Amino acid sequence: MNIDKNQIAEHNQQLEAVQNRRFNQLAEDLPNAETIVQKLVDFQVAIPSWALGTGGTRFGRFSGGGEPRNLEEKIADIGLLHALNRSSGAISLHIPWDIPEDYAAIRTLASQYDLSFDAMNSNTFQDQQGQALSYKFGSMQHVDKAVRKQAVDHNIDVIKHGIELGSKSLTVWLADGSSFPGQLNFRRAFQNTLESLQEVYAALPEDWKIFVEYKAFEPNFYSTTVGDWGQSLLYASKLGDKAYTLVDLGHHLPNANIEQIVSLLLMEGKLGGFHFNDSKYGDDDLTTGSIKPYQLFLIFSELVEGMDNRGMDHTKDLGWMIDASHNLKDPLEDLLQSVEAILIAYAQALLVDRAALTEAQSANDVVRAQEILQHAFRTDVRPLVAEARKRTGAALNPVQLFRELGVRSQLIKERGAKTVATGL
Amino acid sequence: MNIDKNQIAEHNQQLEAVQNRRFNQLAEDLPNAETIVQKLVDFQVAIPSWALGTGGTRFGRFSGGGEPRNLEEKIADIGLLHALNRSSGAISLHIPWDIPEDYAAIRTLASQYDLSFDAMNSNTFQDQQGQALSYKFGSMQHVDKAVRKQAVDHNIDVIKHGIELGSKSLTVWLADGSSFPGQLNFRRAFQNTLESLQEVYAALPEDWKIFVEYKAFEPNFYSTTVGDWGQSLLYASKLGDKAYTLVDLGHHLPNANIEQIVSLLLMEGKLGGFHFNDSKYGDDDLTTGSIKPYQLFLIFSELVEGMDNRGMDHTKDLGWMIDASHNLKDPLEDLLQSVEAILIAYAQALLVDRAALTEAQSANDVVRAQEILQHAFRTDVRPLVAEARKRTGAALNPVQLFRELGVRSQLIKERGAKTVATGL
Amino acid sequence: MNIDKNQIAEHNQQLEAVQNRRFNQLAEDLPNAETIVQKLVDFQVAIPSWALGTGGTRFGRFSGGGEPRNLEEKIADIGLLHALNRSSGAISLHIPWDIPEDYAAIRTLASQYDLSFDAMNSNTFQDQQGQALSYKFGSMQHVDKAVRKQAVDHNIDVIKHGIELGSKSLTVWLADGSSFPGQLNFRRAFQNTLESLQEVYAALPEDWKIFVEYKAFEPNFYSTTVGDWGQSLLYASKLGDKAYTLVDLGHHLPNANIEQIVSLLLMEGKLGGFHFNDSKYGDDDLTTGSIKPYQLFLIFSELVEGMDNRGMDHTKDLGWMIDASHNLKDPLEDLLQSVEAILIAYAQALLVDRAALTEAQSANDVVRAQEILQHAFRTDVRPLVAEARKRTGAALNPVQLFRELGVRSQLIKERGAKTVATGL
Amino acid sequence: MNIDKNQIAEHNQQLEAVQNRRFNQLAEDLPNAETIVQKLVDFQVAIPSWALGTGGTRFGRFSGGGEPRNLEEKIADIGLLHALNRSSGAISLHIPWDIPEDYAAIRTLASQYDLSFDAMNSNTFQDQQGQALSYKFGSMQHVDKAVRKQAVDHNIDVIKHGIELGSKSLTVWLADGSSFPGQLNFRRAFQNTLESLQEVYAALPEDWKIFVEYKAFEPNFYSTTVGDWGQSLLYASKLGDKAYTLVDLGHHLPNANIEQIVSLLLMEGKLGGFHFNDSKYGDDDLTTGSIKPYQLFLIFSELVEGMDNRGMDHTKDLGWMIDASHNLKDPLEDLLQSVEAILIAYAQALLVDRAALTEAQSANDVVRAQEILQHAFRTDVRPLVAEARKRTGAALNPVQLFRELGVRSQLIKERGAKTVATGL
């Protein structure tokens, strides 16, 4: 199924009057409304190929219908999203779930939907059918050099697929760790992992980056070998200039101040990528912005401040990606909500009066500093986000149009009610 | 120092045009704007007498200046707040910090500022000069009946003071608990506490309520004898119809779902009062709404839904109070920010389309349910809150006016730069 | 495969001299060593039928070999455990994973291994093949009465199976809850759940109990409808005398004081059952005693104190069960380690000098109270636990004998390397 | 008051027979008992000067009696401890609470008690009487260079005091941080702090070390400028070879794996010092080993393994110190319990069969690895710790002797019942 430009135009026509009024009303109070709209237009969030199907927990998975059955259908799904919001113009592939059979065909298909290939993702946290050695006790940390080599070789393979598709980065998430005291020698696990990462690093093309993702716990429940930003930064620093830390919002201990981590990683020039989702307890992988929207705003506020401070390009110099699990919602609707929440937080962050904030900070005027941040957060920026969509030919209300067009039932009709997309 | 009606009028005149425009713009989209404004007008939050001075931590206290030196000045401070926002029309006293010498004079003074006396607070977590027995090992839980009796008698005293002032409720927060395994027999501590509370309960006037506050930890660091809502509800149920649970936002374990607790306590008819503040780690006692404003909204959403379901009066049937510690901010500015955040959350909760939400819930339409809640939260309701202030003769921007009038420097001039208000 | 008495005798003969020496040395210092040994002999922990296979996380499952392929083989596995330690004399079945085809045959088989049937477990957190209605949005809480009825009927079925096997209790763990704000009306979810539980309760035989298990989060990540002990107690109180709360060690928010919960539930006469495991982050389901052995001891200390206070029988009046997930270890070895840790904690709890502790508590002698508890905990009670095994014909070192006999390779030979037991 | 050698000898005589029996029994099973005893003899834990008085929380402080009124009496108190256990042979001073008036006299006094001067501690988290500039908004992070300079100068002063006393290290704990979003620019706070630390570093004598302590939260409740080990390591790395990270057990987010942090810091050659205490919720500062003794053992296990791996001297190459708050217990008894718990954990760690553990790890034998660790932990090593005391002329049971001698009543007689030691 494809969404037609006319369908969008028709939808927008109905909502346009109200949108115009609201945008104009808001613009009266915001001198830089136009600048913000332009930045929103430019901002793109990659969609991971595994987020297009129903996710689950260890207790079960309640499949929806019409899930994509192969890479082509995954690309089509992201094409639908991008048609609706014009902010999801990239796909992040996961190997081995998405190995392309014909690179050229896949590239062509993606370009038809105006999609580029974002970071490639490797998988050494599961055993694949026919795999020689098991990752039960880790991959890059493994006590057995042969297992480490298998994991390294897999990552090098992933890079090769990525080169063919035009990707420029590799995200390495390692589930490596331990579930019981004594299971691991922490130091040797670190050193094995470092050595493995160095071998992958050596295979990186000149213009590629490698993102070392950290996670506090799960699926290991005692220690994780890349467990926090401090460990990730140690690896990235030892690896070299092409290595960066990747922050996933759900991968922290309770109460962690993620925005401070973001600021410090930017200070060190070592923040590379970002995985959006939301959570209350652990790596809950809920819709971005559904639980802690103020934290999301504060993080974006640091991202904007820190990137601007280094003269970084918001749209290119960090890898932005959603990484969630859609257990209860229609995955495509969930992704539309997530992208919307990200754009709202980004717009709010762009609204922050930086000069006034710096002044308040310099005067230790804590009350004023809070007023400045909360003014930006409390402002209803949805008309700005919608305006960006309007100008790019996206739908004013993507979720509403998705439903009006009956996209899901159409997909079920095309693909069946019992398809199961690869993923978790 | 008093704030003059003319000073407020002048301030409002300058901001009125913009306020009118914004309110009208918002009202275009909100059919029930007027109803909400009226509810905001009626909503009053009590200010605790101990929150008017600088707070501290065990590591130190950095006093500000111009703090109230006695009960009269505390009332005057709340009078200032109420003049500025017309939403702080009650004071919550703490005994022995605020024992009135002349009830009639204090009542008259309060009524001059249009203030009523909210819940009375007892203190059995500190030893007062000349106190016969120590609370080092607890008060109502104490192994020694004489200590328990002292604590009971103190609470009965507090009730007597309250009767004289026109208060109708007693809040009992017990620091009782233990810091080490083995220190307490949990069951006996519970039973001693229950027996003590029953003695206090017996002394309650017919039209009074007693609020049993719970707290997960601090100042005891192993167990607390009224440690969570389950324990508080057990006490309140065993005590009788006049006993209720009081929820303080900062008194939970990490990640607790407070809004669900609120809903269930309302269901049981046992929610009695509410202490507002915000926190990231523990009982941080920060400005309400400064850390987790979405959670605050969700809690208000349950409060509104649950109270309406029982036909409760939003303004009278629960005790609303701020309970924060102002370590870094001017206490009065902090309180103005807190009240503003509370009113914003309340307004957003009133905005929720309940019928649509119920419909979405009945259809398990999770996406739609989220859209409905977030629509209310994302709406910039500040013009509604300001409108309520405008109509009651309060300042359109209380913090701004507080600063323009130089209230704090005036207070320092009147009271001195080194005064220290009673409190923590 | 069966373990022969002679194999055990031979194993014990080799270790007996050392065991005798250690036991006698310890008994010199412990006047009540014999009493404790007898209580250890009597103590039995039920093994859940689903814990005999490899567990997993949502990221994957790394199967071992020789897993039981049916109920008969599960019973055989527990028979092996019981032969090795004589402390695992009960099985807890899970329906629909363990529906017996021939009750009499199953009963006979179990009795051959000297096993009884502990609490029955229902499953309304997954959809079974061919199930009419989905539990995607809950079961007993569901907005649709038909789904609730399906869940109720299933539980009544489970009771019927249990009656045939001689079980006397039903454990209800509900995954019901929500992952997003707004998804549920908490009050209606509670009331629907209560109504459903009441229907199940009505079908309980006179001499049965129902255990209402609570859990803070997972698989739902915003709210859980039986989320904490307070909620469970509310349900159990409203249901009636046959309803109890069940505590699972991994089902709490971070830092919860579980031992206090245990004490209070015993005080209320509402503690019904216990699920053992251990965890660092959430419901990690690790080997009991592998992460927080002191907490396990403190919990047992409350269990012993609280049961003795009510004159309860340690062996019969609470349901004891392991509930863990064996992702990395051989499930049978893991279970042997768990039972050992439970018996150690129980023995330590029995060692506590209750009179001295009460005296220290009455004197607020915190230092002494800690010394008393830690003396019990620091004592090496393994000779007591081993002595209990020796006297019942179990192996002095069950894990060691399990390995010496090559039990796992034997099971793989009999059942194959790729079997997968039903479970998570 | 001093404790006489004869008093100790008499006490030991009474307990010696039992001790000898238990030690011999244990030594039968432990080939390296003698080596362990010798290491226990050599191990010394520094006592902070502020831990000798009653501590408190922000809610109050319940003083005991006989607290030391000056530095001389603090030294005398530690002298008492050291006489009792011969394991507390160092004092860690806090400036300005402990500024010596006569260095030579203080040195002589300390040497009479056989005490050395461990790390010096600075204080820039409180305002001292007469201090020119306030630390309300931080010290080394402060936006105002003059405040930063004041903090730097204070630290240089502290070094000077330390030089006079023979100390060789400076511990810098900064309370710097923020309580509200927006209050700080995280990057500038970091850079200001780094610059300040560099100025202090420049003043360090050649043979000194500086320890950069981190803490997750409190007294600031939103961010801390040296908030976790990653940040501390960044500072220490940028400062140079004399800079190290200091780990305080209570300064982490919930569920943190501290033992892994210890291992990695040792790997990097950047672990400098250790503060012992215990906690359940935050920086509760409870008696070491009173809440999570297994975690303490696991940490010691990593300390021993990691130090041995680098050929470090257990007694000299790390700074060992207790840092607790004695709110409920007699401070001296509490410290005796803490030292005992530390020695027990150290002895258990020395018991671990490293070769077997490495073998189990190399084989991914998780069950065996756990058995090895838990065997060491479950062994009752108290006879080893007591033996070390016996051989050094310390008391076999220090707490018991402390009580038998009536030390506290003697101190109250000498110093009065209402003294208050400097500290928190």
How would you portray this structure in words?
Chain A is of the alpha/beta class and 424 residues long. Helix content of chain A is 49%, strand content 9%. The first copy, chain A, contains 15 helices and eleven strands. Chain A has a six-stranded parallel beta sheet. In chain A, strands 1-2-3 form a three-stranded parallel beta sheet, covered by helices on one side. Chain A has a two-stranded antiparallel ribbon with strand order 6-8. In chain A, α2 packs antiparallel against α10 and α2 packs across α13. The longest helix of chain A is centred in the first third of the chain and has 25 residues. Chain A is globular and about 65 Å long. Chains B and D meet through β2 of B and loops of D.
